[in-house]
Amino acid sequence: LGMDDAALRGDLNFQAEGSGSFESPEVKVVAEASQVATDELPIGHLHAEIGYSGGRAAAVLKAPDLNVSARAEVQASGEYPVNFEITSTGTRLGPSWFEGTAGGSAVLGKPELQTASVSLRTLGIDIDGYKIVADGPVQADYRNGRLNLTPVWLSAPSARIRVSGNLPLAADQPGGKIS
Which residues pair with 149 in a beta bridge? Predict the structure, then answer.
């Protein structure tokens, strides 16, 4: 499977089953992928379950080799509201590592992100042996077109800086700042 210039490789197996009627269907799909990788990142094993019943779709994705899981629920009516959550327990991606949760809500019918939040218990990056780590939890949230970053201290071997901010992520929002 190729996306633009990025190639995704791996073995895929899936099962699908369904029942009910056209007016009230029930569907379940289970997919397992192994040896998944891109040119840059080994992903490993993936497990996904997607189901639809009673006007609601739910999905769960697990990437155990990356210590990440995600879930989402979509109401299949109106503007298709969705709630999602991603959980990391000691994830390493390239030179970075982190642990925490992210989640939020959106409307797929527009599409529009309504709310989002990130809460990381740990965060770090190692660039050629130069480690930068957050001294405490990293908290950020998105509401009403704005990203808010709660103050956090970042430490490196010879420096320590405090970062916080409030930035517009929508064109109709007034300016913001990172300090």
Answer: 140, 165
94 neighbors 40 (Cβ within 8 angstroms):
yes
Q: How far apart are CA 52 and CA 120, in angstroms?
A: 31
Question: Residue 95 phi/psi, 5° resolution?
Answer: -85, 0
Phi, psi values for residue 100, rounded to 5°? 160, -160
Q: What is the pTM of this model?
A: 0.86
If you ran DSSP here, which 8-state letter would residue 174 be given? P
The DSSP H or E segment spanning 110 is: none
Task: Tell me which H or E stretch contains 89.
Answer: strand 81-93
Distance CA 57, CA 50 (A): 7
Q: Give CA–CA dist 80/112, Å, rounded.
A: 11
pLDDT in tens, the chain (179 residues): 444 555 888 899 999 999 999 889 999 999 999 999 888 888 999 999 999 999 999 999 999 999 999 999 999 999 999 999 999 999 998 899 999 999 999 999 988 889 999 999 999 999 998 999 999 999 999 998 899 999 999 999 989 999 999 999 878 888 888 88
Token duo for residue 170: 């929508």
